[in-house]
Specification:
The chain is an all-alpha fold. It is built from 10 helices and no strands. The protein has one domain.
């Protein structure tokens, strides 16, 4: 409705290829409905069952390993991240490689979800982790090269999209429901905050390292 309002009332032009656009909008609506049904039927139950199986084994290391791997794999498959990475490589004239950017972001999400799972298992208060994490983000912002900072901040947002969020939410709720003394409402949520925070750290960390290596090479060539 907003798009049509601006198109007709503000821009005062008809929408080009209107039939095709209407069909596309209908397909998006149907796709979103199917996606929500799929979450309820498949992803949330399997997340809960895997969380139950892992907590029953009594080996917390397996929980952290699973959290790390699910965070990494879902982020690498995230369409929003792929789009950002391709555009970043294009605009930076190959200064930022899309494959490296995707890997670094996925690594950040993996570390974040693993650490978030540790917090959930240990019962620590989430705000301590978030305060420390964002303090480091502010520190890294001061040292990171300027071209990497906006991409780093955007990376924290694109990782919490259609593929990552449902699986991470299912994992968090599943762990909270199956660990004694945890409240799903209080402890089950929060993993997505870690998934948003740590990519900013890894991307800026990568930028700082790349800039350092560049200066080292320049010194050697003098």
């Amino acid at each position: 409705m907003v798009i049509f309002f601006f198109q007709y009332a503000i821009i005062k032009k008809s929408v080009p290829h209107l039939p095709k656009i209407v069909v596309g909008i209908i397909m998006v609506i149907l796709g979103l409905d199917a996606f929500i049904v799929g979450l309820e039927m498949g992803l949330f139950p399997i997340g809960e069952s895997i969380a139950y199986a892992l907590t029953s084994m009594g080996n917390n290391g397996l929980i952290y390993l699973f959290a790390f791997l699910i965070g990494f794999s879902t982020t690498m498959a995230e369409p929003a991240l792929l789009a950002i990475a391709i555009k970043a490589q294009e605009i930076s004239e190959d200064k930022i490689k899309q494959n490296i950017l995707r890997f670094v972001v996925a690594l950040g999400v993996a570390i974040g979800i693993a650490l978030g799972s540790y917090r959930l298992v240990s019962g620590d208060q989430i705000h301590y982790y978030i305060i420390v994490g964002y303090s480091i983000v502010i520190l890294f912002t001061y040292f990171a090269p300027k071209y990497i900072i906006p991409i780093a901040y955007d990376s924290g947002g694109v990782t919490t999209s259609t593929v990552t969020v449902p699986l991470v939410a299912a994992l968090g709720l599943g762990l909270a429901e199956n660990i004694e003394g945890r409240n799903p409402l209080i402890d089950g949520f929060g993993l997505i905050a870690f998934a948003s925070l740590f990519p900013m750290l890894t991307v800026m960390g990568y930028g700082i390292y790349a800039e350092y290596k560049k200066k080292q090479l320049e010194k050697e060539n003098i």
